[in-house]
Design goal:
CATH class of the largest domain: Mainly Beta
Shape: globular
Radius of gyration: 29 Å
Number of strands: 28
Number of domains: 3
CATH topology of the largest domain: Neuraminidase
Largest sheet: 6 strands, antiparallel
CATH architecture of the largest domain: 6 Propeller
CATH superfamily of the largest domain: TolB, C-terminal domain
Number of helices: 22
Amino acid sequence: MMINLAQNVLRQGPNIAIATALMVFISSCEHKSKYPGPLSAEESMKTFQFADNFKAEIYAAEPLVIDPVDLAFDEEGNAYVASMLDAYKPDSTKGKDKILLLKDLDNDGRADTSIVFADNLREATSVLPWKGGLLVAAAPNIMYFKDTDGDGRADQKEILFTGFFTGNEEAQITNLQFGIDNWIYANNHGQAGEVSFTRKPDAPKLKMSGSDFRFRLDRDQFELATGPGQFGLAIDDWGRRYFTNNTIHIRQVVILKRYLARNPYLPPSLMTAVFNISDHDLQMYQKSETPYWRQVRTDRRNKEYQENRLNRIEYARDHFTGASGGTFYGGDAYPEEYYGNIFTGDVAGNLVHRDILTESGDAPYMTAKRGPQEQDKEFLASTDTWFRPANFSVGPDGHLYVLDMYRQHIETPLSIPADLQTDMDFDAGNTMGRIYRIVPQNGVAVKWEKPNLKDASAEQLVNTLSHKNRWRRSVAQRLLLERQDKTVIPQVKKLFSESNDPRVRLRALYVLEGMDALDAAIVKAALKDPAAGIRENGAILAEQLPACLNDLKQLIEDPSIRVAYQATLSLGEFKDKSIIPWLAKALQLQGQSKWFRAAVFSSEPGSSTDLLDALAKSGFADKDEDWKKDFYQELAETISARNQKSQVAQLLQHASQHDVIKPTGAQAALVKGISAGLQRAEGINDEVKAKLKTVGADAEKDTAKALEDLKTLYTEIVKN
């Protein structure tokens, strides 16, 4: 019809230029019709399909909020939103991001006022309340803003940390989270950068490559954390971290970076710190149509793979590619079985996925499973291709909030072929955005009540540590940390001793830690607590208390695999040789696990020949087990890479003692390990490295000869 209109204009008048322009415009619109247009928030919400009895309500929508990527409620219930208007803009036009303060003036549960708390920001990704103000992550900085005159707009600004990566928007500093251990965590996606702390200008800069980030403003501490988390960080009730990364929607941090950092000589095979815990990757159940560009790109890539005879295949839909915003649900508004679940969006699939965390049994990490209602569907799936659930938050009311950037295209142009971008408008939707509240279908209508924790007394805050909603427990802990009112220490100690809820006892334990009120008696009680999660954290806290060492040793035999694992790691913080028999015990019990071997070898006593002596006395070598060959090779490589002459000499001596090295293949494993370690050691020239490589390769064919050749080579190394 519109084409006919343009043709009539051409027939009826001389203004050919206008008619031609109209034809071009119409042709362009028709060409772009392969990408559907937007829906109103109310219309979009009608496309939501839930697996269980839930429904969505609008908490905020454009024009109050645009491109929301993070939401945090402060102690008064005020909602702060990071509005990322800079997404996919050229550097020359960046600096448009805002932090919005949403107000619900009539207390009906829907925001009706939006105030610009801070603006002119570059790529703001995350917000976190702190000391009456707000921490904001906006690469290259983490900043602190505060409103001191009560007008809702920040009038104080301080750059706290600077030097973070500023490239791709999808891989920057983000996800500020207050952890149960009083540290604030942030994802960095392992990106490079040299980060400094403005309050400690003389402190060495942190080299961020391969790491995430954590800091404590109450103690002016900052350090590297295990990564690489992208956009989405969930911390469970016991302080374990889980993060999101595009196709891998949930990975767990299994070993903290500081443990691996204490021994840089570990073999590469033991340097893994995170694990994909999903038992159902990469499958998701999408309801929306596949975008034209994605199908074309996928077809091209699969054709290229086939032509090059590569054993690869790409999927255009129903597989995680845009996982984002993994969030722990700790609210009290849903049925009990939803507590502790992790919700993750897939912005490419227009859906929200739910994971249930369960114990793995024989591994020091959890397993993420689908819920019983979601074996062939998702918690929430939409047919609206503009629905982009980028992040989530759990509010003071105990409900899950979904942050929908609402854009026609969410992917970075960097990943889309140029010819397919010609009819894609990456700005489409840049004046839109929605925040939905997810509520039970048959639940009582939400009545918004301000938490009003700002004016609570310290005693009231201690009582709030027992609240069913984790948001309130966490805010109470943070406020107690900020205020440092030590008159409540007796009340907190009583809560730790008497609460029936282990989650509350752990909060109390870390409140005491934050007030410098821990002592050996309290930590010893934590090490014997009936809850495994408290024993696990007790092991971490015992690292600073030598009086707790004997109690810590006992946890090596704990029935909880995660507790035994943490105890193994924590023992490594002690230089006392008395820990060696206990590290040997850990290997006897769990040595088949590479995680436990890494935990033992990461410590100085656990990567010494004294460990071999202790194992020999325990009868460790008497039983043939395949994993023991890996153990001998990894230990030998660790010791040899350090290249302390006396240790390597003792290691070579051990390799010659058949009464000590009994298991089949153990001697060859030691030779290969020593060879590999010396190849990584400093000061070894290329010619000798080549000879060492040959010895290692020959170890299994003629072990005796390889051992003698290795001894000769090491004599040469020592002389030089």
